[in-house]
């Protein structure tokens, strides 16, 4: 057996690397491209959680009263060091969750570093007070925050929480996914190097099922910011409820994409297929239900099949690869079961499916798959698959398209491609989702991100993302 690339036997608590109090064996992190152990990390227990929260609580007393300018400079110093560790961060993400290295560079790492810098300037917003009549409104840091993240965009998801938390004056305990802990531990090394005050940033590596509820229920924690599945998000909220803490939840999605009869079909269909297949379909906001007019059905299917089959599925280290494996064998199994369910329920496979080429069988691969003749009541149209599987659903008129779009328990993202932006906007306003991308627009951290319905509560990124980490205090003057 090969020696793992990474070994992190300790936890980063109060500015120091400390051994876990746990007698549990360490956690093996698996490279999903080949099934080999790529890293080992500590496996924290409740005592470790208590130590990390206690460190964050002590640090809050002085960190929360630093000036906005000081916090801005700390954020920029972290961002500079992230830039210096660019290749380490890219490699770590590629090896632990399978994103092709060339794609990981920009989509997983550079974009996250750039986004982290944007929070530096927002520190001043946290400090600004407003006066309305005889009332002064102050924005104060909410307190000690627990940040829990999944594995699909592990650095971006950390940045989307850590940036505003630090800018607001909060201290944090972060818990990355057990599958992708390395980028958080690299950030700990960065923070140790630049000398951020001890206890402001603490990292706990461990299983959500073992330590998650203790983290979320802890009386010294003021806020939990969670990204992950809706099922785990509900457990987080239940654990946090008795101590009435603030909970921000970024959860699952089953996002609709309406293409109208008079849209540029080549551009519209290409955009939709590429969106779903990106990151091997492991994007919470992926536009996994493509709603298309019956009048253009065959033409749309021809384009979708052609675009989908352009994907090169393979080794994440190969620069030609456009699609790597899924993040784990467990995720592969889950996605293959959904594909089998789609077949059993009568949807038609346009491309992809259950078969895998011989050379990919060792890794957690799934071929890019499109189902057609999907009706919105099928399991594959209702449940989040979180893999490279697109459902194409025909509609008769735009009224029916809107009805199908909104017929879901989720409301994270959506998209419309129409003849022109004005026509698209008219449809966008009728969709119950936190975001709507018009005419092939792309993700931007300038836009608040978050869900309606069971996709979550709260928003991330930009000013709205910062506000989640602030409490409003009213000072009433005589
Ligand atoms: P997951 O819910 O299994 O795990 C997410 C994180 O929560 C991990 O760190 C895990 O250890 C932890 N966790 C698990 N059980 C917990 C508990 N009871 N208490 C506290 N923490 C717990 O999700 P996953 O499989 O890692 O990620 C995939 C899911 O994340 C998908 O459903 C996807 O839609 C969602 N997601 C949402 C967004 C968003 O912003 N809305 C972004 C990315 C992923």
From TrEMBL:
Could you tell me which residue ranges the Aldehyde dehydrogenase domain spans? 17-474
Q: State the source organism's domain of life.
A: Bacteria
For the keyword Ribonucleoprotein, the answer is: no
Record InterPro entries? Ald_DH/histidinol_DH, Ald_DH_C, Ald_DH_N, Aldehyde_DH_dom
TM spans (from-to): none
Q: Which GO MF terms are attached to this record?
A: oxidoreductase activity, acting on the aldehyde or oxo group of donors, NAD or NADP as acceptor
Write the protein's name: Aldehyde dehydrogenase family protein
Instruction: Give the species.
Output: Thalassotalea litorea
């Amino acid at each position: 057996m090969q020696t793992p690339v990474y070994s992190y036997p300790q936890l980063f608590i109060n500015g120091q690397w400390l051994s876990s109090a746990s007698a549990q064996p360490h956690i093996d992190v698996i490279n999903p491209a080949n099934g080999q152990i790529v890293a080992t990390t500590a496996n924290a227990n409740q005592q470790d959680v208590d130590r990390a929260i206690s460190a964050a609580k002590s640090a809050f007393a002085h960190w929360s009263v630093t000036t906005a300018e000081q916090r801005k400079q700390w954020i920029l110093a972290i961002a500079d060091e992230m830039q210096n560790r660019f290749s380490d961060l890219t490699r770590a993400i590629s090896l632990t969750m399978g994103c092709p290295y060339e794609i990981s560079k920009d989509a997983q790492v550079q974009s996250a570093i750039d986004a982290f810098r944007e929070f530096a300037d927002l520190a001043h917003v946290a400090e600004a007070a407003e006066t309305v009549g005889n009332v002064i409104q102050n924005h104060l840091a909410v307190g000690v925050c627990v940040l829990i993240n999944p594995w699909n965009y592990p650095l971006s998801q950390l940045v989307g929480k850590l940036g505003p938390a630090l800018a607001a004056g909060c201290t944090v305990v972060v818990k990355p996914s057990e599958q992708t802990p390395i980028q958080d531990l690299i950030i700990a090394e960065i923070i140790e190097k630049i000398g951020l005050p001890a206890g402001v940033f603490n990292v706990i590596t461990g299983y959500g099922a073992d330590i998650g509820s203790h983290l979320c229920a802890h009386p010294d924690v003021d806020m939990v910011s969670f990204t992950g599945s809706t099922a785990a998000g509900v457990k987080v909220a239940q654990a946090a409820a008795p101590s009435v803490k603030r909970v921000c939840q970024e959860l699952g999605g089953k996002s609709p994409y309406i293409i109208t009869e008079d849209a540029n079909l080549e551009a519209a269909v290409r955009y939709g297929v590429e969106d779903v297949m990106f990151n091997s379909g492991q994007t919470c906001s992926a536009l996994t239900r493509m709603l298309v007019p019956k009048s253009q059905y065959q033409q749309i299917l021809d384009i979708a099949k052609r675009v989908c089959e352009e994907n090169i599925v393979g080794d994440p280290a190969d620069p030609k690869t456009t699609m790597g494996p899924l993040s784990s064998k467990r995720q592969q199994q889950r996605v293959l079961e959904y594909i089998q369910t789609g077949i059993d329920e009568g949807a038609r496979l346009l491309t992809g499916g259950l078969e895998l080429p011989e050379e990919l069988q060792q890794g957690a691969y799934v071929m890019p798959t499109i189902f057609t003749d999907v009706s919105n009541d099928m399991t594959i149209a209702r449940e989040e698959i979180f893999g490279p599987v697109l459902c194409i659903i025909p509609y008769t008129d735009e009224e029916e398209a809107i009805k199908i779009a909104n017929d879901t328990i989720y409301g994270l993202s959506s998209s419309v491609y129409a003849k022109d932006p004005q026509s698209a906007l008219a449809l966008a306003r009728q969709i119950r989702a936190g975001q709507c991308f018009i005419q092939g627009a792309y993700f931007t951290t300038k836009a608040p991100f978050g869900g309606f319905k069971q996709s979550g509560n709260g928003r991330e990124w930009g000013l709205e993302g910062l506000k989640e980490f602030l409490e409003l205090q009213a000072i009433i003057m005589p």
